[in-house]
Amino acid sequence: MVVDILTLFPEMFAGPFDASIIKRAREKGLVKINLINIRDFSRNKHRTVDDTPYGGGAGMVMAAEPLFEAMDWIRTRQGDPGRVILLCPAGRPFNQEVAAELAREEHLVLICGHYEGIDERVAEHLVTDEISIGDYVLTGGELPAMVVVDAVCRLIPGVLGERASAQEESFSDGLLEYPHYTRPREYRGYRVPEVLLSGHHEKIRLWRRRQSLLRTLASRPDLLARASLTEEDRKILASVLEEIKSLIHLIQ
């Protein structure tokens, strides 16, 4: 996959993309990340990329011209990208499903906004997708771009050591992931659940599924409404509800 990031601050990406899994993915040639400075496409001597908004108002607006010029430059070298993504508050919420969708593309362009916003002609005529990583305000689109690249790249085949790692983690099936433990068996009086030491694979599978459902029910019940639950999942949840009812009865 090729990811082109249009940004005013390419230096911000040095740390996150030069370490850990993303670094190894780049070294293996599984993903190529190009940091493109929008100022390089400004036509004035001061390399400014913003201007006052028509109609008045506070703040500055990122101009259309440098972004259109940058996209022309990308197309002449690599052809049309699969998606051109603007990171902005108005975009659709970013989640694991969107990450998996983008991971199927061969070429992505991410546009990092700044100031009070971007000239609307960019969104109307260049952008294919608008994405938001949450309902809060950041200083620019660089941090959201890092989040999107990290989430997408780890789903590319070969990036993670084991494909099962991506398939079993949180949100992969609409639920939160089950808890994990490692050695020692006991630490400061806290023990690993006995079922995980049993070697009984079916019991371990059922325990993990139950824990996944319990965690989701407790922390993110909204996810259960959208998850694709199996008949086994429904039976587990039914038994959990019966246990809760019994506890309530005892308390009363």
From TrEMBL:
Chief localisation class: cytoplasm
GO cellular component, one term: cytosol
InterPro entries listed in its UniProt record: Alpha/beta_knot_MTases, tRNA_m1G_MeTrfase_C_sf, tRNA_m1G_MeTrfase_TrmD, tRNA_m1G_MTases_N, tRNA_MeTrfase_TRMD/TRM10
This enzyme's EC code(s): 2.1.1.228
Residues that bind S-adenosyl-L-methionine: 113, 133-138
Entry-linked CDD domains: TrmD-like
Superkingdom field: Bacteria
Keyword terms, alphabetized: Cytoplasm, Methyltransferase, S-adenosyl-L-methionine, Transferase, tRNA processing
Pfam families per record: tRNA_m1G_MT
Key word Methyltransferase present: yes
Enzyme class: transferase
Gene Ontology biological process terms in this record: tRNA N1-guanine methylation
All copies of domain tRNA methyltransferase TRMD/TRM10-type, residue ranges: 1-225
Subcellular location: Cytoplasm
Listed GO MF terms: tRNA (guanine(37)-N1)-methyltransferase activity
Catalysed reactions, semicolon-separated: guanosine(37) in tRNA + S-adenosyl-L-methionine = N(1)-methylguanosine(37) in tRNA + S-adenosyl-L-homocysteine + H(+)
Subunit relationships: Homodimer.
UniProt function note: Specifically methylates guanosine-37 in various tRNAs.
Family listed: Belongs to the RNA methyltransferase TrmD family.
Protein name, UniProt field: tRNA (guanine-N(1)-)-methyltransferase
Lineage: Bacteria, Bacillati, Bacillota, Clostridia, Eubacteriales
Gene: trmD
